[in-house]
Amino acid sequence: MIQKKVCMVGLFGTGKTSLVQRFVHTLFSERYLSTVGVKIDRKQVELDGTSVTLVLWDLAGRDGQEDITTSYLRGAHAILYVADGTRRETCDQLPELRALVREAAGDVPEVVALNKSDLKERWTITDADEQALASTFDLIRTSAKTGDGVEDAFQRIARATLATREARP
Amino acid sequence: MTATAVAARVDASGLTDVGLKRKVNEDHFVIAALQKSADVRQTSLPDQRVFDVLRGPEALIFLVADGVGGRPGGALASETAVTSLIEYLGRAAGCIHQLDVDREHEFLGHLEAAVHEAHQRVVAQSGGKVMGPATTLTMATLLWPRCYLVHVGDSRAFYLHKGVLKQLTRDQTTGEYMVDAGAWTEEMAAKAPMGGTLVSALGGDEMTVAVGLVDLQPGDVLLLCTDGLTRHVGDERIAEILKRAPDAETACRELVADALAGGGQDNVTVIVARTQS
After folding, report:
1. Edge-to-edge strands of the sheet including B146-152?
2. A1 touches chain B (CB under 8 A)
């Protein structure tokens, strides 16, 4: 059984837990409860006849009080950054978060989920901003509410971990 | 009944009380230290630090279980679940002592498997009866500084960090699920007769293991409790007691006293673990 640790990283309130809930349990809740520590879920995905269990580490979001606990990132096989299109700062801080993550987890595959695509009319990042972000990150629009892009985001992560499995079991 | 365990960095104590309304205490708790040790009887070696490789880090296990009231065999269900978990962990102790980052998945898998095995044992006890014995279960395994949590039902784990009380677990109750679904407000969930009904329990029709972890820091306080505490004592008051009490045993006594003063409707069990600052 291939198991891959995937860490969900981003500022608070970007929808990390909601994306996991949507992906693992096909559920969405409007209720916001901040994650304390790490919540761990698993989901098995099939990729070209290979079964991969993604062990999803949903980390408490970075906020003004607490930074990301980097010890949670050690041993990660991939990172799914989550940003919120309606809050520009959640995108602006991605390069800084990436530097922090790479220091702890090394150069592992990464995908950015630009979340809340169902609220596109309220986005504060422009198409140009999105394109700029896409030039440095593997970017995908998601909506935990509607499910758009969610399966794709996790599939991309799973594929990326498999592509590097020869290098790191 | 009290139990006290003092590890290098942790002052831990537990207390359980039948409460003022129930005749039987259906709660159980455990505080256990798992150690890999070497007792060197004789040696000519001048520097005995070499034997440190034979000694492993200590893991502390904290566990509370609350047999579901209103069903027969609640006490036996919680006892069976706790016993089963301890037995499983005894078999998997090697995994704890060899735990490192690359084997964390394996360890988390063991914790989940332990809960599933305990569930099966409680189910087997009922002989297939509908509404047979069932129990909640909340277990923390502290391998400093990391605290691994597995949780089923509506007992709770909290930690006090920088003076702020944070709930680590979420109740698996109808009320919580309805609020999540947007069908009820929190106020409605609190008042609804079915709001506190468990939707997941060991021995129950549904059993979902929630898994999580948190890295503790010196000065943090961990609290595990059954709902006999939280139905009478609010978060602010719990935080106040945890901050003020000079040691874990006193904190336990004060928490239980408050639950009893608040009505003592249910059995109440608490475990407090204070990390040294």
Report:
1. A139-141, A110-115, A78-84, A2-9, A50-59, A38-47, B210-215, B146-152, B137-143, B59-66, B27-34
2. no
Residues with Cβ within 8 Å of B265's Cβ and at least 6 positions away in sequence, in order, are B19, B20, B21, B228, B231, B232
Residue indicated by tokens 């569930």: B119
**How many residues are present in chain A?**
169
ipTM surpassing 0.85 = yes
**pLDDT surpassing 60 at residue B2:** no
CB–CB of B102 and A69 under 8 A? no
Q: What is the pTM of this model?
A: 0.91
State which H helix or E strand residue A69 sits in.
none
- Reading the block at residue B154, the tokens are 């509506």
Phi, psi of B147 (to 5 degrees): -120, 110
Phi, psi of B62, deg, nearest 5: -120, 135
Determine contact, residues A74/A105, Cβ cutoff 8 Å: yes
> Counting every residue, how long is chain B?
277
How far is B214 from chain A, CA to nearest CA, in Å? 4
